[in-house]
Amino acid sequence: MSSPLRMASAIVGAAETEELGVIPDKSATQLHADAAIRAMEDAGVTNSDVDAVLTAGSPTQIAEYLGIQPTYIDGTSVGGCSFMLHVAHAAAALATGRCNVALITHGQSGRSRVGEGGRFGGGSTPSAQFEDSYGTWGAPSRFTVPFVRHMHEYGTTEEQLASVAVAQRQWATKNPRAMMRDPIEIQDVLDSRTICWPFHLFECCLVTDGGGALIMVAADRAKDFPKKPVYVMGMGESVEMTMISQMQDFTSSRAFVTSGREAFKMAEIKHSDVDHIMIYDAFAHLPIFAMEDLGFRKKGEAAPWFAEMKSAPGGELPVNTNGGGLSYTHTGMYGMFAIQESVRQLRGEAAAQVDDVTISLAHGVGGMFFAAGTLILTNDPSA
Amino acid sequence: MIRLVVPKRPFPRPTPETQAYWDACKEHKLTLQRCLNCEGQPAYFYPRPFCPTCLSRNIESFEASGKGTLHTYIIAHRGAPGFQDDVPYVIAVVELEEGPRMMSNIVDVEPTPENLPVDLPLEVTWEDLEREARDGTTEKIGLPLFRPARGGS
Question: Is the dihedral of CA A55, A57, A58, A62 positive or negative?
Fold first, then answer.
C-alpha cells in the first residue's frame, strides 16, 4: 500500500537570501527573515497565510520575528539535514490538516557570527567527556575520521577524494552565486593546505553567511500558486550517534542507509529513475559515502565513479549542481541549500540547469554522520 | 621517540554514570563494561548503567587489557584551541581487544601515514591531567592515550 504522504504535499515557494557569502550587516535571525519573506513572495503568500513554522533552533523566535501565529511548530534540530526532516514533518502536518501553509526557514551567520550563540559548549555530554580531550575541534577533525577506514577497506585513494571537489567546482564555474568559481584540477586539491590528513582545504566546505526558506502546501492546492509545484514523493530520516568514535561501521552510515531506504520505499521508484542528486557535502567524502549508502553505487565503487567525472557537467548523473558546500556556500547547516537547488532544477530555474529533470533526490547529513534526512522530489504531478 | 605533549586538554567532567570510569582512569586502569545478560557477555563503551543492546541492568565493569588496534584516524594539521602548538597530532579510533572502540590520540610515534597503517597494534599509555578546582584544591584525572605496541603479552 502506498504511503498516504506520497505526493500529498508540494513546495510552492523557495528562496535563498538575496546575498550569500559574507554578510556582516545581518544577524542570523534577519537572515532567516530575509529568506522567509522572499519565499513568501515567491509563493504569493503573506505572514497571515502561514500557520506552521519549522526551523532548526527556535521556531518561537521565527514566529515572533515574522509576526506569525502558528498552529503547528517544529524545532527539530539534528544538524544540517534538519530541513529535510522539516519538509517531511510538514508533509505529514499538511496531509493531516494540522496546518495549511507551512514555512521552513534557515538563517545562519556562520562566518560573520552576528547574533549567533556560543560556539564551543564544554559540559559533560558523552562527546565532551570522551572526545573533546583528544584535541578535536568541531567538524574538520571528527567528520573526517572514518575515511581512512574506507581507503583501507576499498582501496579508495586521495586522488579519488580530490576528484569530488574537482567535479563540483566544474558545476560552480557555471553558477555566478557560487563563492568559489575558478576551475581546479586534482593536483590543485592535493596541493592545497592539509587540514586533517587525508583532507586538504579544497576538500573541506566553505564557511559563509546566508539563509533559505520554503513554503509548502497540500498537493491538491499546489497548482493555485504561481510557481511550478515541486511534489514530495518520498522522505526518510534517521540518526545514529553523537560521537564519531561510536560509528558502527566507518565505511557506511547507518543513518544514511536507513533514511535513504525509507525515502525510496515511499517514493516507489528505482534508483535509475532519479535524474539529479544533491548530497550534503561538508567534506568531499560525503558524496562517496552517500552514493554508496543510498544504493546508487556498490560499496567501494562510488569513489572511482566520481574520479571518472560521472557526476560532473556532461556526466551520466549530475550531483551537487550548485557547486555544493565545497564551492557554492556553507553556512553551517547547508541542507536547506541542497533542497533549494533540487527545487530550482525541478522548476527549470537553476544557474547550471540540467536537461529533463523530473525526479531529484536531496540527501542531508546532520552533525558528523550523526543524523540524516532524504527527500525525493518531482515536478510531475502524475508521478 | 617523540613524546606528544598536549597541554590545555579540556578536562573531562564525569556524570554519575561515568564517575567510576574516570575514577579508575586516575589509577591508570582502563575499564569497560559488559552485559551479563547477553550471550557471550559482550563488552561495551562508553559507560552506561545498562546494556545498550538488550537494556538489561545486569552489567559489570572490568579492567580492559589496554591492547587494541588502529581502526581509523586523521592527522590534525590544525590544532584545537589549546592544541595549536602540537600539530601535527593523531586523532584516532582505537578498536580495543575486547571489541568496543574509543577515540584517543596515538603518541610516541612520528605522525605520518607511513608510520600509522590501519590495524596497527596499540597499547594504552596515560597522561595525567590536573586543574585547580573551585575550592582551591587540585583535581586530577587520567586520560587514556595509545602508542604502538611494544610487543610482549
Answer: negative
Domain that holds residue B94: 65-153
**Together in a domain, B72 and B147:** yes
- Tell if the CB–CB gap between A136 and B18 is shorter than 8 Å: no
Look up the ipTM and state it: 0.89
CA A169/CA A323 separation, integer angstroms: 6
Location of C-alpha cell 542528486: A277
Domain termination site, one of B44, B63, B82: B63
Beta strands in chain A (DSSP E): 9-16, 52-55, 72-74, 102-109, 194-197, 199-200, 209-218, 230-239, 276-279, 359-366, 371-378
Segments making up each domain of chain A, as ranges: 9-115+205-378
Mean pLDDT of chain B: 92
Q: Is the pLDDT of residue B152 over 70?
A: no
Nearest-Cα distance to chain B for A288, in Å, is: 17
Both B111 and B125 in one domain: the answer is yes
Question: Considering chain B, what percentage of its residues have pLDDT values greater than 70?
Answer: 94
Q: Which CATH class is domain A9-115+205-378?
A: alpha beta
Cβ contacts of residue B73 below 8 Å, gap of 6+?
A145, A148, B90, B91, B92, B93, B106, B116
Residue B73 has pLDDT above 90, yes or no: yes
Distance from CA of B58 to the nearest CA of A (A): 22
Q: Are residues B25 and B69 in the same domain?
A: no
Write out chain A residues lying below 8 Å of B13, CB-based: 123-124, 128-129
Cell 585547580 sits on residue: B132
The pLDDT tens digits for A180-228 are 999 999 999 999 999 999 999 999 999 999 999 999 999 999 999 999 9
Nearest CA in chain A to B10: A133
What pLDDT, in 10s, does the model give residues A298-335? 999 999 999 999 999 999 999 999 999 999 999 999 99
Residues B146 and B73 in one domain: yes
Q: pLDDT grade, residue A124 (50/70/90)?
A: confident
Q: How many domains does chain B have?
A: 2
